[in-house]
Write a structure and sequence with these properties.
Blueprint lengths: L12 H4 L1 E2 L5 H10 L2 H8 L5 H10 L6 E6 L5 E10 L2 E8 L8 H15 L4 E7 L3 H9 L3 E5 L2 E7 L3 H24 L1
Parallel strand pairs: 4-5
Antiparallel strand pairs: 1-2, 2-3, 3-4, 5-7, 6-7
Helix pairs in contact: 2-4
Length: 187
């Protein structure tokens, strides 16, 4: 019996996101090491060596930081989000392997990070990135983040609503989308 393609409503990257823990450190390391030189530059903002990645991964504090991603099922992390909280704000870094790019995984990682930030009382989410990083720039623009750019680097900031307001906004947006879909179906 051949498996049928699941409907788009079931196929959602956010549903596959899971939090990494200390014992996932080797998989996190493998994810970053699998990035090509230019992809590493876009993720970290500078040229990085394997040694830099080794040290970076060893310093990740899984008790403080929120590291999450989508695993392929064969142990390969396709996309990783790294949320570092501090003083009512949090910085997000994310990376997606080439075979999973252009499929909405980076945007799903971003949405998950915003929801997690809201749930945990974070009031400001920011991303620091190279201005030429078109994928992150696209995510930031779609989220209507305030973006400041200078000398080839950009900072994007998002004011995160309190969690109850976040939920109300999601319900309102879903209701609006549902009504729009009903109008289109009846036309």
């Amino acid at each position: 019996m051949q498996a049928q393609l699941l409907p788009r409503q079931v196929l959602d990257w956010v549903a596959l996101l899971e939090r990494l823990h200390d014992d996932d450190r080797p998989g996190l390391r493998a994810h970053y090491l699998a990035l090509a030189a230019e992809d590493r530059r876009l993720r970290f903002g500078l040229q990085v060596t394997d040694e830099f990645i080794e040290k970076f991964v060893e310093r990740v504090d899984f008790g403080r930081d929120v590291v999450f991603g989508v695993c392929s099922g064969s142990g390969r992390w396709l996309g990783i989000g790294h949320l570092v909280p501090g003083n009512g704000a949090a910085e997000l870094g994310l990376s997606v392997l080439p075979e999973a790019r252009g499929k909405g995984l980076g945007a799903a990682i971003f949405r998950f990070a915003v929801a997690h930030a809201a749930r945990n009382g974070v009031r400001r989410l920011f991303m620091h990135f190279l201005t030429r990083n078109k994928a992150i720039l696209s995510i930031a623009r779609a989220a209507r983040m305030a973006i400041e750019s200078e000398a080839g680097e950009s900072d994007a900031h998002l004011v995160v609503p309190p969690y109850p307001e976040f939920v109300r906004m999601l319900i309102a947006a879903s209701d609006t989308g549902q009504r729009s879909g009903e109008k289109a179906a009846s036309a």
